[in-house]
Amino acid sequence: MNKTLLSIVGPTAIGKTTVAIFLAKHFDTEIISSDSRQFYKEMCIGTAVPSAEELAAAKHHFIQQKSILDAYSVGDFEREALQLLEKLFTKKDIVVMVGGSGLYNDAVTKGMDKFPKIDPDIRKQLNKVYEQNGIEKLQEQLKEEDPGYYEKVDKENPHRLIRALEICFGTGKPYSSFLEKAKKSRPFRTISIGLKADRQLVYDRINSRVDDMIVRGLISEVEKLKEHSNLNALQTVGYKELFHYLEGNWTLDFAISEIKKNTRRFAKRQMTWFRKNDDTLWVSNDIERNALISEVENKMRDTV
Positions of the site: Interaction with substrate tRNA (predicted)? Predict the structure, then answer.
């Protein structure tokens, strides 16, 4: 298997984009983004979309190619990313993928778990529960129906909670019973490269990034999206907190503090997800570049 996908993972704000661009330039290749919120053209500042200079430094795919009004699932991404990889691998031996969305990353590298078809009325009913009773009711239901999955799911993501519950109610079985069955084989090998740093450094970088986003106009960006605040794409840290501010429920200072807190929590969940892969090559986020290339090439030689 002589085609290799270099998958760059790690918590938000740790510097994945910089490393991905460096590797893409070194190996003369292109970058696939697996960040599920950078897909949307209306969401730029709050999703830390690479700058114009970064996008020009190496060719990127799946950056701001969709609208928040478009229906776009992880399954759609899996299919389109695999099609693109097939095309890229006709001219490149190595392609770089980068992103902090573990589910989307795994969809490309391992394949999606398969679920039975569910009556769409069940999702409609769950959406109504969410609208009328808030996310806490969904959390209570999932804890009762599937306590194992409840312990590891992103409990602040209503879309994930509703998806799990519709499987539970539609099949009479726990959502977790359908997870991680036999995965699909891929016509390429994946080398996962994880970036790590001291927790406090990651938290400091997160806090600094949030402050920078506010200065760069995040509030204005969110204000333009206020009428669509119910869309799943906008149930995202940095947006949902500012909707509370714009609706007069929170002060700006409190909203910003909540963005920082929720982003730190998100980073912790990201690391929990990525650490599940025992084959990941973990390197310091500030590793010297020649040392990084040496580590990656050694990993590629050792991986069959």
Answer: 101, 123
Degrees, nearest 5: CA angle 236-136-250: 55
C-alpha 255: how far from chain center = 22
Longest dimension (CA), the chain: 57
**16 labelled ligand-binding:** yes
C-alpha–C-alpha distance, residues 138 and 164, integer Å: 10
Residues 6+ apart with CB under 8 A from 179: 113, 149
Is 190 annotated for ligand binding?
no
17 is in an annotated binding site: yes
Q: Is 15 annotated as a binding residue?
A: yes
Domains of the chain: 4-113+181-302 (3.40.50.300), 120-178 (1.10.20.140)
Tens of pLDDT, residue by residue, the chain (304 residues): 589 999 999 999 999 999 999 999 999 999 999 999 999 999 999 999 999 999 999 999 999 999 999 989 999 999 999 999 999 999 999 999 999 999 999 999 999 777 888 998 999 999 899 989 999 999 999 999 999 999 988 888 888 899 899 999 999 999 988 886 656 789 999 999 999 999 999 999 999 999 999 999 999 999 999 999 999 899 999 999 999 999 999 999 999 999 999 999 999 999 999 998 999 999 999 999 999 999 999 999 998 6
Q: Is 238 annotated as a binding residue?
A: no
100 is in an annotated binding site: no
11 is an annotated ligand-binding site residue: yes
Q: Provide the 8-state DSSP code for 100.
A: S
- This prediction has a pTM of 0.84
